[in-house]
Amino acid sequence: MIYDVDHLTRVRYEDPIRQARFNLRLMPAAWPGQQVSDFTLEIDPAPYPAVTTLGPYPFNLTRIEIDTPIEALTIRARFKVHAEEAQLDVHGPALTIAEAAAAALQLTDLGPWAPVNYLFPSPLLPPDPAIAAWAALRLREDAPAADAALALARLIQREFVYDGDATEADTPVAEAFAMRRGVCQDFAHILIVALRSVGLPAAYVSGYLRTIPPPGQPRLVGVDAMHAWVALWCGQQRGWVGIDPTNGCIAGSGHIFTALGRDYSDVSPIDGVFVGGASQKLETSVDVVPVDE
Fold it and tell me: What is the pLDDT, as a whole number, of residue 136?
């Protein structure tokens, strides 16, 4: 499937800001089965020349600097992506949870994709006894790792309530778990903590999800949003497998990969620092449109 993606962000500041330094993670990084082309980044007001580098984890990092006072900032990322269904090695060995956990510790690789990077607590995801106890009942060490993780994702999809008003971007994972409510970020964080509690390498994925309108209804423009899911390392042969706890499924051609990190704080689309500005208003509009529409 080929999609046109258009991600528009507008920020308005109550008072002018200056000496702004922002980090953007909007250019999709490489992911198996996905090819990105025609990426453009429009920024108004135009910053000091933007610099894009590889991040410490699998994402592209664009740094921008704006030294003149501004009251508003507009950032627009557009690209085309050809996304295929996940090509899982169904004939390779299906490692159990215990085998995958042991294999991750045996590897000496410390690069961005190394599973050891995603085994341990991260800034937003400390160990949580309640999540660990909940996971222990469902993640037996002799169970196939991918199958057990997908079953747990489907349990989250069935028993947790999607509620955009229940949490904020900085809501602790323990609170979202206790409420059994939240959004895709919360559900991904909960699944990651659960998987790490039994020794499995689990990473946070930021990207986009194609949405399909109800039968007979037109597709609304600008109502899509960024999505989050989990990447589970299933051994050297199978590698990383995307698992979506919000929808209880394996990530497929409707999931468009942008960035991977230890948790949301590593891959947030935009963050940074500036001087001034008592408050700000953020508006985001996303379109993911199949090119044959």
Answer: 95
